[in-house]
Amino acid sequence: MEKLKNHPISLLEIIKAKKIVSQHLKPSPLVKYEGLSRLLGCDAYVKHENQNITGSFKIRGGINVMAQIKNAGINGVITFSTGNHGLSVATSAKLFDIPAIVVVPEGSNPVKIKLIKEAGAEVVEAGRNFDESSLIVSEISKTKGYYYVHPANEPHVVNGVGTEFLEIINDLPEVDAVILPLGGGSEVASAVTVLKAINPKIDIYAVQAELSCAAYSSWKQGEIISRPNETFAGGFATGMAYKTTFDIYKESLTDFVLLSENEILQGTALAAYHTRNLVEGAGSSTIMAAWKLRNKLAGKKVVLQFSGSNASPEELQNAYELSSFRDGKVI
Ligand SMILES: Cc1ncc(COP(=O)(O)O)c(C=O)c1O
Known about the structure:
alpha/beta, binds pyridoxal-5'-phosphate
């Protein structure tokens, strides 16, 4: 298992991951939207990772890691997550016929638990928060010999997620800038690995929530620090940065934007208005980040990634009550 964990993250490994991932997933669409381009003052392209199976980019990492685990003859996988990572591990493990356990904190959203169970994983509700749940993961992984699929400190996840950026380069080689939400950092780290290797001039911007800004604060300070984790937007919901991904992105971002909870909701409303897509808070945060960065992005070819579609009904209701949902403007 150590050998798998110490695997390199590189452009070459991401090209290898593409051979595996593309057997199970079609490339996601990259679409230019005229209304969004007018609003933001740039050529705005959306990379629709919200349209992947499981509703997020995470499935790319899941598929790649399961292929390695199957080859290594490991008898099961375990992780902790209430969100897209849990769903990706459950779905991809089933695809490769590998038993999976997903640990979630006690009292987690029953809808999300149901989705993870339906995807084929055993769900263990344990611990009052992610820190306590993660201790239980380590215990079970030792006793059962299951591989712990970490959402960020896991090279095969990062390499799998990176296949998205090969697709972007293939479809839009002249891209000037990419904007991405950042939670554990698998996505931003893989973007840096692909895009900077191919064209170091491509700007990579990260977005996080003001209420869960551990990665932002770590980036500012140049070292990993913990911060409170209080945002409603699941994709951002982490209280710390992670070493594997942080070491890759810490010196390669052009800028890092923080959004308020209301700005995150506006993103979901604007995504519905301009692209007719259902996108969760972290997923459409890239629109409001582009709005804040509009002076720097003026006239450029910009890829806004929509990372996921698994919004809660409350989140959608709050977003669709905003005037942006009806007029497509920033409030
Ligand atoms: C919808 C969504 N967006 C963004 C992220 C952040 O991705 P990463 O953890 O790779 O930084 C996640 C993470 O789970 C997510 O589910």
